[in-house]
Amino acid sequence: MTDDSTRKRLAEFIRELSGADDVTITRLERMSGGAVQQNWAVDARVTNGEYAGEHEWVLRMDAPASVAESLTRQEEFRVLQAMHEAKVLAPVPLWLCTDTGVTGRSFFLMERLPGIAAGHKVARDPRLVSDRSRIARELAANLARIHDVKPPQPALPFLSTSLARDNIAHYRAYLDTLQESYPVLEWGLRWCERHRPEREETTFIHRDYRTGNYLVSDGRIAGILDWEFAAFGNPFEDIGWLFAKCWRFGQHEYDVGGVADAADFIQEYEMLTGRTLDAATLRYWQIMAHVRWAVIALQQRERHRSGIEPSLELALTGHLISDLELEILTLTADGAATTPATEDDTVR
Amino acid sequence: MNNLPLGSDLLNVARETLLSELRPILDERGRYTLAMVANAMSIAAREVEAGEAPALSALARLDKLHKHEERELHGVELAIALSSYERQVAADIRAGRYDIDTARQRALLEHLRTTVRTKLEISNPKSLSPPKT
Question: Using a CB-CB distance cutoff of 8 angstroms, which residues of chain B are in contact with residue A184?
Answer without folding.
Answer: 112, 115-116
